[in-house]
Prior knowledge:
Number of domains of chain B: 2
Radius of gyration of chain B: 20 Å
Structural class of chain A: mainly alpha
Helix content of chain B: 25-40%
Low-confidence stretches of chain A: none
Mean pLDDT of chain B: 96
CATH class of the largest domain in chain B: Mainly Alpha
Number of helices of chain B: 9
CATH superfamily of the largest domain in chain B: Alpha-helical ferredoxin
CATH superfamily of chain A: Fumarate reductase/succinate dehydrogenase, transmembrane subunit
Largest interface: A-B, 44 and 54 residues
Mean pLDDT of chain A: 94
Order of helices and strands of chain A: HHHHHHHHHH
Largest sheet of chain A: none
Oligomer: heterodimer
Number of domains of chain A: 1
CATH topology of chain A: 3 helical TM bundles of succinate and fumarate reductases
Amino acid sequence: MGNFLCSSSVGRKLIMSLSGCFLVLFLIFHMSMNIAAIFSEDAYNMICAFLGANWYALVATVILAGGVIVHLVYAVLLTLQNRKARGAQRYAVTVKEEGVAWSSKNMLLIGFIVVLGLLLHLYNFWYHMQLQELLGNHTNDFGYSPADGVSLIRDLFAQPVFCVIYLVWFAAIWFHLTHGVWSMFQSVGFANATWYPRLKLISNIMATIIFLGFAVVVVVFYIKSICPACCVA
Amino acid sequence: MNLKLKIWRQANAKTTGKFDIYNIDNISPDISFLEMLDILNNDLIHSGKEPIAFDHDCREGICGMCSLHINGHAHGPDSEITTCQLHMRKFNDGETITIEPWRSTAFPVIKDLVVDRTSYDKILQAGGFVSVNTGGVPDANAIPISKPDSDESMDAAACIGCGACAATCKNGSAMLFVAARVSSLAKLPQGKVEGARRAKAMVAKMDELGFGNCSNTGACEAECPKLISIGHIARLNREFLSAKLQD
Lengths: 233, 247
């Protein structure tokens, strides 16, 4: 029975849908966690300490990495099959069909931008936090405790170039989600003419909430860096 | 109208094709696109040249035989019509019109603008039917079918199998065609009985023939001459997944 997940086109799309859904849920969790940093730096560091190198956080990290890898591998696999199905001979004239979103036709490209941002992000934070704790180090390269996430945020977003890179990354995630969220309902079959406008609205709202939720932390910490008295927390 | 036509010419499936340019003058804006091609072919024949091969049959938008990718659109720039229903008044005098065959691995070019769409027939043969003899036309009230169900079934049954969906799809996916066939039968009691088997068999055949995976862009729906909704694709996904989960 499980074979159809790999062997059929609809099954492969189900995998994309479910792994995508899992990653969206993770984004919502991560965003909620980040927002704590705006209100209380101590609270944020408590969450960081809670998500350190303990077995439940590690299991969750492995499952999460698995989700990312499955989504990515299937995306590449599906795109290669699709390119083959499209054929070597391309149309000389192409147009943008009415009502077709740009992001829907460029999910792999946007996805790669998201992955590049993810790699940078893993280096900026995960490498200095959970990995250092796993390696048994009590301080990271910056001399901070691995659970001191706030200091990493503060230092990183005091640099305008990282603020811009992160905002571009969040924008890529926004584009990915505007197509991805409603698409995951379509791929499991939960969609019809009545629900398309609703699902697309939900997608846009979800994508925008996730964008704003992540961006606000970057903006607040940048403002704090240039004007320490502006945001007292 | 005077027009410049950029048309794909290809001698057969094995040779590589190329675009040829043809100038055609004094075309009435009231004739259809295919009549314009007839006039061009007439000129070509009279000047001893090979006429352009293109598919057509009923010329009233119901057989699904005509195709052509015209200026980037399957069945040309107008919506809800097939190429045979496209009129020359949709173009401007002096315009260059690019005419290409469907481009998809599962629709190989046979000659010029003619492609082999047997793959759609093969998908239909895999399950797009009711396999018992249902006899003559039943009494209208004998099998109660709700109006919404009958409407949805008929909307899906409007599919003429022209191939515009797979030709338009950037993934070369035939999902809209398969979905229309699965959906039109799944919404009726006569077809519902074999729903699970049909969905599995048709999807398997579609995959086997080298069509791509649907990525929900909705381009097929936008270019479909019969306005088949991607809502039918959602139903196909439902039918297929529930059939597989019951195995």
